[in-house]
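Appendix B. Raw example, untouched.
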Amino acid sequence: MSFYKHLLANILVTFFLFTSTVAIAESSAGGPALIQNVSLGNATPHLTLEEKYLADITIHSPQELFDILTRADMLLDSGQYSIEGSSPIIFLLHGDEARILFKQQYENNKEVVDLAAKLTALNVVDIKVCDIWIEGNNLFTKDLQPFVGVANNAAAEANRLVSQENYQYF
């Protein structure tokens, strides 16, 4: 198992287990759970438990992307991940692994693309491809699968999500 594959698999498991714990806490409390007046030095009072995650990914093969998406699907099917009240994991792709998400590659990558489309439709993941990478490889955004978004600059988008939207890296 490659280092990245192992790392991402562990991160997804941790994320989905945490999210299901939060969903249980929220449902038993009758609404969003809050931590109030936490005394941890510079901690901000009234923190919400909802976590938003960002995966700035460079994967090496369609199989590795498929493995990550399969694990997410298994956690969803088993009930360990709850769709309600969770923000999707944002996947920022900016390497050759993004090629499989272009319409011309569908026949060669049906299983991966169909699973990615399903998980996107269920709001488990939000997949975005870097526009700078697209242009640098003489590809066109209009040729992406309809469920795939575009980040003008993946590095800038990652910084924005972390600094302004309170996303956390895995």
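End of appendix B.
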